[in-house]
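Hi support team,

I'm filing this because I wasn't sure whether my run with phosphoenolpyruvate finished correctly. The job status page said complete, but I'd like someone to confirm that the output block is well-formed before I use it downstream. Pasting the exact inputs I used:
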Amino acid sequence: MPTSSRTPYVGGNWKMNTDRAGARELAAGVCEHLADVEGVEAAVFVPFPYLLTVREALDKAGKRVKLGAQDVSDRENGAYTGEVSAAMLLDSGVHAVLTGHSERRHVIGEDDALVAAKTRAALDAGLEVVVCVGETLEQREAGQTDAINARQARAALAELRADVLGRVTIAYEPVWAIGTGRTATPDDAQDAHAKLRALVGSMHGQAAAGAMRIIYGGSMKPSNAAELLAREDVDGGLIGEASLKAADFAAIVRAAAES
Ligand code: PEP
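And here is everything the job wrote out:
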């Protein structure tokens, strides 16, 4: 039963996994499994060195799975060794990027200001952005879930113009659920998503809030996807481990299409 007019969105975050042949095979497999699936947007977030390979595989399969990158520089160009700009990503056939993923916030050390700058740089260049927010276990146990989500989302969305908001998706990813096999309950996910939507409404108006997709990430897999996706404000998923198996990822995309 459709619960909103928002088209569901499911992204596969491959993280620092695969090799060139494996990336090609995985992308082709995802397209094959999704050949008859409609009413949902799917994207794969691929390691930088394999973007062009996956671009070719997606084009060859002819299925409109979006190509995504896992990071982007906040700078336009210049002497920033090792960085990859939004323009370079666009030039490589990329549609979307992740910003604020918990592994970049908590392992690499990116702060709210850098996540916001990367989000703006990607949107200014014309990319779509999936902005990730979410609390750590410690923060959850201290009752800070809503405050952390609000702080991270507010920082990332504060300076965005109205005309770019349609290219923004929020991913609520409780850090304690990422790669751990633990999943937020559907009630917890719905509660966090509804609060994030209310926050977007208070910042950018009800129309923008109603249109914005808010997806869940954290050990979503074929066996638990449907019950999470059935909730009103859960508009899709960001999938790590399960996105490395084409059949599992496709099963989640299918569940989203049917939600
Ligand atoms: C992620 O990396 O965004 C993620 C949700 O990972 P996993 O599905 O493995 O928990």
